[in-house]
């Protein structure tokens, strides 16, 4: 599902965020990405959905060669990838239903398809009864569940989550984690960058640890392994 081949990323100030990263993540895997602040986790994640481009190397996600994508091809690629952010990135003037349906409207899905898919994902994340509420009327955990519903509505083959529990209390963090597990059980690949030691150590999955731009540990059913 995801492959990086000798990937390097240097920013304009000469800082090397990633140095020689090579990794494969199979269809259906659940993979944590961990490491200290500034290690390169966010860059690693952003390269997967083409928010950043590699300086050198190749990246394949769901059959797409990320480095060679033309600008007009990026929206097509992103239809196959769901992205969940730490700060939710919801459209504040829109209701829960409208935030989720927007992802289908931009690809001109039929009204029948939109109604069916939005109803399905809102039921999955437990927000059917709050479809007509605005983001400001929801708790942080509920807003993140809207973000996950929006990421799922296009039936992506992979979910990329960047610190999805970073702004949540422990109870809401566990709710989000259980939701990701349900999604993964249905066959969706999940790559999750996190600082949440308790989640990683309690729900054992593959752990990729990054330090100073390099993969220093890659373990099946691994542990968090950091004190920050």
TrEMBL record:
Known function: Part of the ABC transporter FtsEX involved in cellular division.
* UniProt xrefs under Pfam families: ABC_tran
Describe the protein's quaternary organization and the partners it interacts with: Homodimer. Forms a membrane-associated complex with FtsX.
Show the NCBIfam families listed in the entry. Answer: FtsE
Q: Which domain of life is it from?
A: Bacteria
Q: Report the subcellular localization.
A: Cell membrane
- InterPro entries attached here? AAA+_ATPase, ABC_transporter-like_ATP-bd, ABC_transporter-like_CS, ABC_transpr_LolD-like, Cell_div_FtsE, P-loop_NTPase
**Membrane topology designation:** Peripheral membrane protein
The protein in question is named Cell division ATP-binding protein FtsE
- List each coiled-coil range: none
Predominant location category: membrane
Q: Which UniProt keywords apply?
A: ATP-binding, Cell cycle, Cell division, Cell membrane, Membrane, Nucleotide-binding, Transport
Q: Which gene encodes it?
A: ftsE
* Gene Ontology process terms (BP): cell division
GO cellular component terms attached to this protein's record: plasma membrane
Task: Tell me where in this chain the ABC transporter domain is found.
Answer: 2-227
Q: Does the keyword Membrane apply?
A: yes
Respond yes or no to whether keyword Transport is given for this record: yes
Q: Report the source organism.
A: Ferroacidibacillus organovorans
Q: Which family does it belong to?
A: Belongs to the ABC transporter superfamily.
């Amino acid at each position: 599902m995801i492959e990086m081949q000798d990937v390097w990323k240097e920013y304009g100030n000469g800082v090397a965020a990633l140095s020689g990263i090579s990794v494969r993540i199979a269809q259906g895997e659940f993979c944590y990405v961990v490491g200290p602040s500034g290690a390169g986790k966010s860059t690693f994640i952003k390269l997967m959905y083409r928010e950043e481009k590699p300086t050198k190397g190749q990246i394949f996600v769901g059959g797409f060669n990320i480095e060679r994508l033309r600008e007009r091809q990026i929206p097509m690629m992103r239809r196959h990838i769901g992205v969940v952010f730490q700060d939710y990135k919801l459209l504040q003037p829109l209701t829960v239903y409208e935030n989720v349906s927007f992802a289908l409207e931009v690809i001109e899905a039929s009204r029948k398809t939109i109604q069916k898919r939005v109803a399905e994902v809102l039921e999955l994340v437990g927000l059917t009864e709050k479809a007509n509420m605005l983001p400001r009327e929801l708790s942080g955990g509920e807003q993140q569940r809207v973000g996950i519903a929006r990421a799922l509505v296009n039936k992506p083959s992979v979910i990329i989550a960047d610190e999805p529990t970073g702004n949540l209390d422990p109870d809401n963090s566990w709710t989000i984690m259980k939701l990701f597990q349900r999604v993964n059980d249905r066959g969706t690949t999940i790559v999750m960058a996190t600082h949440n030691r308790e989640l990683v150590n309690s729900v054992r999955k593959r752990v990729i640890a990054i330090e100073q731009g390099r993969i220093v540990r890659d373990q099946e059913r691994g542990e968090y392994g950091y004190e920050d």
